[in-house]
From TrEMBL:
UniProtKB keywords: Kinase, Phosphoprotein, Transferase, Two-component regulatory system
Protein name: Two-component sensor histidine kinase protein
InterPro entries referenced in this protein's UniProt entry, alphabetically: CheY-like_superfamily, PAS, PAS-like_dom_sf, PAS_4, Sig_transdc_resp-reg_receiver
SUPFAM superfamilies named in the record: CheY-like, PYP-like sensor domain (PAS domain)
Source species taxonomy: Bacteria, Pseudomonadati, Pseudomonadota, Alphaproteobacteria, Hyphomicrobiales
Source species, domain of life: Bacteria
Boundaries of every Response regulatory domain copy: 439-557
Amino acid sequence: MMTEDLPSGGNLHPMFFDALCDGLSSAFFAYDKNDLLLFASRQVLNFFPIQPEFLHSSTRLRDFLGAVFDSGVLSQGNQGKSSTNRDGWISQRIASHWRERFEMTEHFIDDRRVRVINRRLSSGIGFCILSDVSEVKKREEQWRIDMERVQLTEDILDNLPFPLFVKDQNMVYVAVNRAFCEKYQTAADEVRGRKGVDLFSTDLAHRFDESDRHVIETGEMSISRQRQIARDGVERDIVTRKHRIGKPGRYFLVGTMQDLPKDGADFDEFALASHIKENGDRSYRRAYVPMAALQTISRRPAAMETFAPENFSGRKILVVTSDFAAETAALKTLGAYDFEACVVHDENEEAAFLDVASAHGVKIDLVIVDNQLGKRGVELAERQNVPVLSLDGSQLTTELPFLIARHFNRNIRGELGDVKGAGPAQEWRHGAGEDRRVQVVVAEDNDINQIVFAQILEGLGYSHVIAASGDEAVRLWQEHRPELVLMDISLPGLNGFEAARLIRGAEKGSGSHTPIIGVLTQAFERDRNECADAGMDDVILKPVSPDIIETVFQKYMRNIRKAQSR
């Protein structure tokens, strides 16, 4: 840029240098061996709020620096001990301009960082380049902080006593901890950047990926159990938990594995179950269990007392599932209602169990098969004329009592005959006698959820009717004028929003207002807002429980008349 023979006061082509500085987002000024300015680009004013006349040629460098000091743009830290001594600061800066090479970063009071580069040529001519490096410094500082955080996180994860792994959306391992490497006798570098098919058998890797992709796509937590043989040759049950973290488009899967302690106290199995040999090659499977269910499986709501008759006590139920969370929930629930319950983990164990039971004359009253194990489990039970229900993991943890009660109650009604001729599906949909005023209208089209609502409301003592569509919900509201409406938003015919709007329209001018509670499956803000726009008073989320229902009723129902025992 500069030449050794550039004459003092020579033509520096100001327009050329201004254009160059604009392109480089920098400022430039030059001075001769007498410390008189030869040229200063107009961009200098972007860095120092000084008067333009200080940029004129032949201005003394000392006067230019004095104007910079007087502008107060530099922070106290940069002015240092000479911050109150103007002449001392100017002398230090002139000395730096006489050095052959000098670089520094100035910290301005507006938190800008400016890099200053000074050069002095052998002819005595010097120049200075100013560049704003604020963003660069911020990125460097953030990078340093991020690296410290990453290092801290890695240290924490490496010291966890159980294996942990992280996968990206492409099912590629991006991180594993020390316990994971020790478990599989490998090194982290041999795992990172690879997929499950590179580390495990093809079948096992595909099973892992199936579960992992479901968690990544849905955000549902996965809890599962698998049988593994450790390095010491001992078979152990391993519980794997998987979560999704991150943001849309940048999700990661975090998985942890822990040994399942051998504690038979929680399992009340049939006496003949000891004859069934554990299958050491139990396959891995996915399990999608709502967290709310795991938090409430140990409680026995008072409302459930009404649909577990005493004659259910002692009935023998076999559960077929390889899902540890569903197994635990099912056993605790069945034990709470005095069923005799046992769990096997695949179709082979089920077949062996049923054969042994038949050989010993033990009657199995019901087989419950996890529907993710396939149809063979159902076929095995039907082959031996044992009643069977096929349920998913969520039903095993949240709806099991209702479904079993429905099964046995239907069988009892089938044996006794239906005197009145009403179909069994209608008996629980109308929880009010002819002489009782309907307090609650439930709009719900799903058969299982209808049973759940009916059993809870009957247990809590509220008279109710159930509508299977939005049109029926409006009709039943007009007919009964209930004290409250529970409105599912996804209904055939009129949806829940449209039904609520019709009810609100019919109430105009009447002075009446029926509380309408929206029932949602997901806590989407748009659904909440649309419920409010449709005139609903509040929302609740599925799966519902007696506590949730009772809380809503206490808040919104007025002059509640509890049903008398029949």
